[in-house]
Amino acid sequence: MLLLAIRLEIEVIFKNQYPKFFSEELHEKIAMKLINDLITQLFDPNLFFSRFSFLESNREAINIKYQKSKQQSNSSSQSRFFKRSALVE
């Protein structure tokens, strides 16, 4: 979790410090890739934690995952629980 927090905070620091540079999508993608590569080299040079996908996620991806899980929990899962088949709606 510490590694994830470091990644997110560095992203926020750079985006707030250089908003004009990060306003272009190509610049943002390249810079964030280089920043994430540097963090990986510093904190996980042997790639022990690389199998955990959330460590490579950015804030937008985490928000999308949170929204999707929230939408699924709000769906009518209880009304589907007592049905005979998953194919019946």
Secondary structure layout:
Blueprint: H1 2-17, H2 19-22, H3 25-43, H4 59-74, H5 77-81
Helix pairs in contact: 1-3
Structural summary, described in words:
With 89 residues, this protein is an all-alpha fold. It has one domain. It has five helices and no strands. Helix 1 runs antiparallel to helix 3. It is flat and about 35 Å long.
Short description:
This protein is mainly α. 67% of the residues lie in helices and 0% in strands. The chain has one domain (2-81).
Helix content: 55-70%
Rg from Cα: 19 Å
Low-confidence stretches: none
- Give me the count of strands: 0
Tell me what portion of residues adopts beta-strand conformation: under 5%
- Between the first and last Cα atoms, what is the distance in angstroms? 40 Å
The number of domains is: 1
Q: Structural class, from secondary structure content?
A: mainly alpha
Number of helices: 5
Dominant shape: flat
**Average pLDDT reading:** 75
Q: How can the largest sheet be summarized? A: none
Spell out the helices and strands N to C. HHHHH
